What does this fold into?
Amino acid sequence: MSWSAADVPDQTGKNIVITGANSGLGYQAAGVLAKQGATVVMACRSVERGESAADKLREQITDTDPDFDVRECDLASLDSVEAFAEDLREGYDELHALCNNAGVMAIPRSETADGFETQFGVNHHGHFALTGHLLETLVATPGETRVVTHSSGVHENGEIDFDDLHHEESYGKWEAYGQSKLANVLFAYELQRRLGEAGIEDTLSVACHPGYADTGLQARGPEQEGSTLRLYAMKAANAIFAQSAKQGALPLLYAATAEDITGGEYVGPGGLMNMRGSPTKQQSSDSSYDEDLADRLWVVSEDETGVEYDFAALAGSVTA
It folds into this structure.
């Protein structure tokens, strides 16, 4: 299958939220979706950087009048996530897609405002909480809506360590990253199962991964470590092996807009080692399909974030 940004269906009248839309894959996806007519809510930790990114996209999109709504959302703070969601619900009666895209990768150990290990707190807990706050609006929106959660091929090496979930006893930056990315896929699949069990058919949960894409994500770890050698090595590897951020955004776009998507699917590049190429539907790791693991993670996530999902009430809002 050959699928490109030109294949994204018309998005006129749709409201789409993308976390981390000021750079990398989220930035590329925001431009494509706005060009196709969507109102794109750019949920960014820095409003200043978000506005700068929106201005650049407006300069690039000359054949339409793109609609960007930049709002502050710091996934490392549950208070910020909740405030963002509350403000968004006041401004939008309908949401057609939530793209859980933002993330951090292989950084030195630190903690979020709520005391979570940062990679797990941002990549998983922040998006778990955000989805919980916005799910009622997504479910109540007429027609099909989607929650797309961005994972990584690195999830295949991930393990959920419930005995040391936030790596207080032992920390490896790649182990922590792999755990957070496995959590992303487990969450996406469990959300779809729970929606299905509640009889909610028009809101779909999908996971995706970008393969190896040249974004600023890879540089943050070496920059925070102060390792100039690793930073140059990473940039060289990106230049030689990685596909562009524009190409890397295609699985996210496919998962969010393609008409043949069903809930519980996993989308990634179909080329060499699933690292590059056009988006295809794929199989994720064996661990990601472990329903007992996903259920346990869900319970822990509700407990630690304080965000509880009431699927019975959501189902009632559909039939009311």
About this structure: Residues 231-240 have pLDDT under 50 and may be disordered. The beta strands are 15-19, 39-44, 67-72, 97-100, 145-150, 203-208, 266-269, 279-282. The two ends are 41 Å apart (CA to CA). DSSP finds eleven helices and eight strands in the chain.
